Amino acid sequence: MTTNDPRIDAYIETSTDFARPILRHLRKRVQSACPDAEETLKWSAPAFLYKGKLLCQMASFKQHVAFGFWQGAQVVGDAQGEAMGQFGRITKVADLPPARQFDGYVRRAMALVDAGVKVPRTRDAKPKPTLDTPDDLARALDASPAARRHFDGFTPGKRREYIEWIVEARQAATRERRLAQAVEWIAEGKPRHWKYQNC
Where in the numbering of this chain does the YdhG-like domain appear (predicted)? Predict the structure, then answer.
């Protein structure tokens, strides 16, 4: 039997008046169809785990509620509305599928977890075109053999991050600062966003 997470109780109670009955209904339906669900918060919104895997999630906004299955396309099919989740902008309980149908979706999501099915990764249909190295960056790299060696060894994506950072500078002084910083980091073999790695 699912144990109510007090954080979700608080989330529901602090939601807008129209949203509270919808959130309570969704919670009850998930708990009914999946008694082993574990409640938690993910991305600051109520979520339900099954066997440690994200099953579904709900969220309250100013004028609507959203609900979605983690493997939504495999559970319900393509999204049916402009809001996140599979049921569009939910403004009343009647906007949701009937209980029997909804429970079937929950059980289908559970079956996917049981089978070990993973969310398919989507990739851009077209790879991004390569960017030419700007002349000022090329000169700065040539002046630092270590920077040139590392830059040439970077993946196209890592090179692109530095190039975009430099060419997006709006002022000449900003561009100069970025060039100097880039060459310093590149000479150390650091990618553009090295500070955020292993965070």
Answer: 20-110
Are 70 and 51 within 8 A, CB to CB? no
| CATH fit for domain 6-114, picks 3.30.750, 3.90.1150, 2.40.10, 3.30.70 | 3.90.1150
Task: Please check whether residue 70 is in contact with residue 109, taking contact to mean a CB–CB distance below 8 angstroms.
Answer: yes
Contact 18, 7 (CB under 8 A): no
CA distance 27 to 136: 58
pTM for the structure as a whole: 0.56
- Alpha-carbon dihedral angle through residues 6, 90, 67, 105, given to the nearest 10 degrees: 120
Which residues does residue 148 pair with via DSSP β-bridges, in sequence order? none
Q: What is the pLDDT of residues 66-121, one digit of tens each?
A: 887 787 666 677 655 555 667 777 888 888 888 888 888 888 888 888 877 776 66
**What is the Cα Rg of the chain in Å?**
24
Indicate the domain borders of the chain: 6-114, 135-196
